[in-house]
Design a protein that fits this description.
The chain is mainly alpha-helical. Helix content is about 65%, strand content about 0%. The relative contact order is 0.08.
């Protein structure tokens, strides 16, 4: 039981790191969008 909880904890940590990496990647790609403006994009003008 103890070993299973350790494995589950390691999986959650790795999953969190992967999700954070994907979020950073998508944030970076948003600045250099190769798709341009898509229908449904929200445009905020200041």
């Amino acid at each position: 039981m103890h070993n299973m909880l350790q494995d589950f904890g390691k999986i959650l940590i790795i999953l969190g790191i992967v999700i954070a990496f994907i979020g950073l990647l998508l944030t970076g790609l948003g600045r250099f969008s190769f798709l341009g403006r898509l229908p449904g994009d929200i445009l905020i003008q200041k």
